[in-house]
């Protein structure tokens, strides 16, 4: 099905806007319970996740040929599979952080994993752009 370019641009921002809205809602809820630090960390993690989602929104239209290893169909498939695996793992970490924040449990391990994922992504982008 063909989708007009205007609609594709709008759809690109749905997930990041939802992540920001969820982050603010969870952060305010947790902060109102007296856990301001946990609320701020949850908001920060979800804002970073929204930035990642927004930055990655245009990648789907680039195709497999422009990815690393995209010279052959096998390399492109492996690259896409690795990216999908990373996306799922980051989504699980973010979801677990939200649940733990709302439960009032410790979030430091999950926040650390989210920070490692963020730094790894940034280093990967920088190293790939210089490659």
What would you say this structure looks like, in words?
The chain has 131 residues and is mainly α. The chain has one domain (5-130). It has helices at 5-12, 14-32, 36-56, 73-103, 108-130. The radius of gyration is 17 Å and the shape is globular.
Short description:
With 131 residues, the chain is mainly α. It contains five helices and no strands. It has helices at 5-12, 14-32, 36-56, 73-103, 108-130.
Low-confidence stretches: none
Number of domains: 1
Strand proportion, as a percent range, falls in under 5%
Kindly state the number of beta strands.
0
Query: In percent, how helical is the residue content?
Result: over 70%
| Overall shape | globular
How far is the first residue's CA from the last residue's CA? 36 Å
* Mean pLDDT value: 83
Largest sheet: none
Kindly list the characteristics that best describe this protein.
globular; 131 residues; mainly alpha
Helix and strand arrangement:
Blueprint: H1 5-12, H2 14-32, H3 36-56, H4 73-103, H5 108-130
Helix pairs in contact: 2-3, 3-4, 3-5, 4-5
